[in-house]
Design brief:
Layout (H helix, E strand, L loop, with lengths): L5 E7 L3 H11 L4 E7 L12 E4 L3 H15 L4 E6 L6 H13 L5 E8 L18 E3 L7 E5 H6 L12 H11 L3 E10 L10 H12 L4 H16 L10 H15 L3
Parallel strand pairs: 1-2, 1-4, 2-3, 5-8
Antiparallel strand pairs: 4-7, 5-7, 6-8
């Protein structure tokens, strides 16, 4: 894949130092922008590549990223939330993979999660495959979406908190015969945020999903992914989840050796 095929967008809300680290790691190789949602960070440390918005939440930042990707006719949009931690070595490996491998037929692509990372999706934790592997669903704190996939997310005005965007992306990628992939050669660390049920965000997500002609199928897909995941781990990991992962991950990997 060519560097000009990908637009990188870093969604920043009060994690400017890491956003700038990601930007400076990626910008020499790819077109890259920081989309800042009212973080109060001034002036722009990235030579004009920071877009300052009011607090438009996740969907507002995604909308702006999609708009830029569509205007530039980018085949892929790679977004990263600024609380996602990636090492210099992982970022160098990511760049080599993106520039050296074919992504034809890939709708969604994500690095795996390290052992000390948080995700409710058990199959996103790194396995010893040393390769890209197909998955049912990948959580949306970062990812690379093909153009057909990222365009399908719009309009986002009825879903400002952004729950369900990753479901729609993965559902339609698979619906269209494209692959969703996790890459075990790369790993990220994502801190555990507020995972308590948010009635407003959940209601927004339901309305957002049901605006699609396949809305009922997307909700069934959501339920199937949740049931499959619950068979592996609880829906919400306990507050001591890092200690708990020390017991969970060896067992999980034993049953998923391939």
């Amino acid at each position: 894949m060519k560097a000009s095929d990908i637009l990188f967008c870093i969604f920043n809300y009060r994690a400017a130092s890491n956003a700038e680290f990601l930007y400076h790691e990626l910008r020499p190789s790819f077109e890259c922008h920081i989309i800042d949602a009212d973080s109060g960070e001034r002036p722009d440390p990235c030579g004009g590549d920071t877009v300052y918005l009011p607090n438009v939440f996740y969907s507002g930042m995604m909308h702006h990223a999609i708009t830029m990707a569509k205007e530039g006719s980018y085949p892929y949009l790679f977004f990263i939330c600024s609380d996602v931690q990636m090492s210099h070595e992982s970022l160098e490996r990511l760049k080599a993979i993106l520039l050296g491998e074919s992504f034809d037929g890939v709708g969604v692509y994500c690095p795996s999660h390290s052992d000390d990372s948080y995700t409710w999706v058990a199959w996103s934790y790194v396995r010893p495959s040393g390769a890209r592997r197909p998955v049912a669903f990948a959580e949306g704190m970062l990812g690379m979406y093909a153009r057909r996939v990222y365009e399908q997310l719009e309009p986002l005005d009825i879903n400002p908190h952004g729950w369900g965007l990753d479901l729609v992306a993965c559902f339609y990628a698979r619906f269209w015969g494209m692959r969703c992939e996790i890459d075990d050669r790369l790993s990220i660390t994502h801190p555990k945020g507020d995972v308590h049920k948010n009635t407003l965000a959940r209601n927004e997500a339901r309305a957002y999903l049901m605006r699609y002609p396949e809305g009922k199928a997307i909700r069934r897909y959501w339920v199937v992914c949740s049931i499959r995941n619950a068979a592996i781990q609880p829906f919400i990991l306990p507050s001591s989840y890092r200690k708990w992962l020390g017991f969970f991950l060896p067992v999980y990997r034993f049953f998923h050796r391939k």
